[in-house]
Design brief:
The structure is a homotetramer of 202-residue chains.
Chain A lengths: L17 H16 L6 H7 L4 H7 L3 H23 L6 H18 L3 H5 L3 H4 L9 H18 L9 H21 L4 H16 L3
The structure holds a DNA duplex (21 and 21 nucleotides).
Chain lengths: 202, 202, 202, 202
DNA sequence: GATGAATGAGCGTTCATTCAT
DNA sequence: CATGAATGAACGCTCATTCAT
């Protein structure tokens, strides 16, 4: 039985893994130190690369951060889609979604926080597509509309507003919970009950 | 009877108000440009003072910003306390509080947003006392506890968590509303109904 | 008898012209962007080659530029030698030479300008063989000597000085003419009369 | 009789001579090393100042260079105006002007050369007002027109073209003369005769 | 108290060149 | 011959803070 040498078996050249290494280092440092305190040079050094290499893969620091954000978003998105109860009762949907988010958050500590860094920090001018939180708010709005259409939720709300409210509530409770030593069970329980009562049809 | 011209009386050069002038300039610039893009020098110049004078009144830029934040907090606090229905129905309390907040926000555009600048922006290391949002969350928690004790609100919640959730919901809806062109009436109406349903006793 | 298709014969990959391709690309870019703004990488890419290939043909960027300059010089030289009246009257010689120079300049726009890039731009330390302008001045000096020996020109001048003066006059009038919209006819006419009067024997 | 203490007698503060020191250092370094090889930091260091101080006086390196050029231009201009024969014969005007230029050039070695650094070196984009050489060409054009109007010079020339030709001739002979060890007397003599013959009326 | 000239650590970014493949 | 990922010295510039006046 042969063991394939993962390090050297690539047919062509040395495996150009430098982008992967930069991505990992960027995530690590953006999470640990934040955007401002992380220099492109630090990211490259952490990845064991010269700092010119950073600019082979990203046009500038901002682009690197935005790529990190997008990766985190996609990861969380995949995780949540895979783990939430798509069409159960309102309570099941909410509880399973919250649990999925907290699962991701627990196994990737600090990542969501770092990814939600305010856009104003990233670039004084220019425009970030849509802030992460707002995008997620739109997804919650979709969920609200969906549930209202099915009769599982009150249909007299403006779904956009309520979607943003939900995501804001999650964000702030999460933020505060990481400061205080708050247990996840209580968080999910309280928020689920809160949201279910607020949303359920009369 | 003579009225002393406070603006122009030559003998006492109109100076002792330099802290006030710095405060006003700092608020103006932090709101217009944000923390990073505002230099102590700009604040002093805007106030018609020399750069060094800034450091006579604040040990550093961070302290100046924190003072601005505290002033905004106190102002909003006073405004809300003066204008909300202290002990009416849950709905009255919530609606009047929201309206008071939006009143302040409308008459001091940009101030709350600037004051909520993420702490990570203000200083890479050090620690900001308690983030503004978290403090406001604690006040909402107090309201929740108070209402629950009176039987006006469901008493099975962890008030701290719900307080943070409420303030998070307000923050994010406000933020998003200023981007989209969302009308205040709909915001207050939706949020009030949402919170009242979530909080009211079974 | 078979003629090998140099353009497309697959077996021998159409490579040995890489130096030619680099030369053409280098000229194009040095003319369009100037020395500083042209990177070896750009030249190679423009030629459809890898970056490293550049260094197979030139030791460094400077050498590539110097080769471009030399090619331009040789081209102009050949063109002028082929087109000027070698031994006519002073006026004929001068007028035909000026016309030949302008012909070349018109059909290779920007090339002479780029080739005359100041030596200080090319390398802070090292020494360029002899600046192009000075070499051309020496050729004009030769012409002056020649004409003086034949009695067609005043022989009391230091030919070296006058040669440099002539080439300087041509350069600066050409430079200024491309900025202002000055017509070539007037340029040749004025310069020819100017030089003929200055040079003709008493 | 009192001797005023030039170092300390200023009524207000320490004499803010830092701009003068920067100017002197900038001139020295631009002359010795050229534009590209001179860093703002070097200029400041040479002046005994921190490198931030450079940016107190100039918005950027380019502005510093342009100020150097303008100073050199004004100095030469003043020197030439003070020393040339304004209205003598054509020969007197030309000879005295050339001598004045060479006087300046001898007593400020390298300055004119440095000041004439090609505009393309200073900024890839942007536009320098008018290149120094072209401006001087315009002044010679004025001289030519003036002399032609007085009957001291041939009036069938386009003065603009001839003015540029003259300044080009001076520039290139000067440039080449500093390379070769050419004596100033021969330069002035040859150029004066050359220009006088070219310009004088038939 | 008030001033503003002076400071220099620190930033993000570029590009000529090398060398393992 | 050819490649292009990798390098790191070097650059122009900013800005919070100090201190002699």
């Amino acid at each position: 039985m042969t063991v394939i040498d993962l390090e050297k078996s690539e047919p062509r050249r040395r495996k150009p893994d430098s982008l992967e290494r930069l991505k990992a280092s960027a995530r690590k440092l953006f999470v640990e130190r934040g955007y401002d305190a992380t220099r492109p040079q630090d990211i490259a050094r952490e990845a064991g690369l010269g700092h010119g290499t950073f600019y082979l893969h990203y046009p500038d620091k901002r682009a690197c951060f935005l790529a990190f954000v997008e990766d985190a978003r996609a990861e969380l998105d995949a995780h949540v889609r895979a783990n939430r109860a798509q069409d159960g009762s309102l309570e099941q949907v909410i509880a399973s979604t919250l649990n999925a988010i907290y699962d991701y958050s627990d196994s990737h500590p600090g990542v969501l926080n770092a990814a939600m860094t305010d856009e104003s920090v990233i670039d004084a001018e220019g425009v970030q597509a849509t802030p992460l939180l707002t995008r997620w708010g739109q997804e919650w709005a979709e969920m609200v509309r969906h549930a209202a259409a099915d009769g599982r939720a009150c249909n007299s709300y403006d779904a956009e507003i309520i979607g943003q409210a939900i995501v804001g509530a999650l964000h702030q409770t999460g933020r505060e919970a990481s400061g205080a030593a708050r247990c996840r069970g209580a968080l999910v329980d309280n928020l689920t009950r809160f949201l279910v009562r607020a949303l359920k049809p009369d």
